[in-house]
UniProtKB/TrEMBL annotation:
The lineage of its organism: Bacteria, Bacillati, Actinomycetota, Actinomycetes, Kitasatosporales. This is SalK. Pfam families: HTH_67.
Length: 288
């Protein structure tokens, strides 16, 4: 499919929509709100808030749609978490988390600004062209009601766009022959993914499994002896992102070049403010 957009315009826009959505996963408000409904384990809280839109699913559905978590880690918390807090209770708590997180990171003046309202309008327009077909996490979130307040409407739209791209990205990873740990390790080697420490610590894998995955990537000629991407590895990861762009083109084509440019401009300001306020932990991204 050819595009009328500048090269990688959709990807650049998504790179700002994604952190706007995902900051709530790293927020102290998440632990507080989930603990208030009985979910005190941080990992259970994460699985619950991201999977709640799917309903009271089991571990298999979460492992399948989240992709890069060890199944045994997921199964330690799902479906048991739904006995503590139902999906509807978790979804209500998640909206409170998003509200509190954005107010803390952006401040009340920016929350109430015309820029946030405009960004919400543009992002929601982009979601009009998203497709439910073969995109389970996107489809589940697309069935949720749209929040009325502009900053939460923007957060909802960024959630839809993030999960829409993410569902397509998993199809690309499977087609590329990457298992979950190989996908994490090769992304980490780009310098743009989670560091090995973060990936192993949060996804439930062991360092032995990480080392075995990097050995398999070296055997494919994608990593060198120092676990840096080879020339072939750079091209391999580039094609993964390009293929993901193709599967995620529709919402940005629908928004149009001027709309994508304006949304990117607005989100740059918002996310820069969030990062300056400490939205994400230090040391999370990188090769080491």
């Amino acid at each position: 499919m050819t595009s009328s957009l500048p090269e990688r315009a959709g990807r650049r826009c998504h790179s700002l929509l994604n952190p706007f959505h995902s900051a709530h996963y790293f927020s102290p408000d998440l632990g507080r709100e989930l603990a208030a409904v009985g979910v005190e384990d941080p990992r259970a809280a994460y699985f619950a808030v991201r999977a709640a839109a799917l309903g009271g699913v089991g571990a298999g559905a979460v492992t399948a749609t989240f992709f890069n978590f060890r199944h045994e880690l997921v199964a330690a918390h799902v479906p048991a978490v739904w006995e503590t807090a139902s999906p509807s209770v978790v979804l209500a708590a998640r909206e409170r988390v998003a509200d509190a997180t954005l107010r803390r990171l952006l401040g009340e003046e920016l929350i109430a600004s015309s820029e946030v309202a405009e960004a919400a309008e543009l992002a929601l327009r982009a979601t009009e062209a998203c497709s439910r077909t073969a995109r389970p996490l996107y489809a589940a979130h697309a069935d949720l009601p749209l929040p009325e307040r502009p900053h939460l409407a923007l957060w909802h739209a960024t959630t839809l766009l993030r999960e829409h791209r993410g569902d397509g990205h998993l199809a690309v990873l499977l087609d590329a022959g990457l298992d979950p740990v190989e996908a994490l390790a090769s992304h980490s080697a780009t310098g743009k993914g989670m560091s090995p420490k973060w990936a192993v610590g949060t996804r439930g894998w062991t360092m032995d499994e990480w080392d075995a995955a990097t050995a398999r990537l070296r055997a494919r000629g994608l990593l060198d002896a120092e676990d840096e991407l080879t020339e072939a590895g750079v091209a391999f990861r580039r094609e993964i992102e390009t293929a993901t762009d193709r599967l995620d083109l529709a919402p940005y084509e629908h928004l149009g070049a001027a709309g994508v440019e304006r949304l990117t401009e607005l989100m740059t300001g918002l996310v820069t403010t969030m990062l300056g306020a400490g939205a994400f932990p230090a040391g999370m991204i990188g090769k080491r």
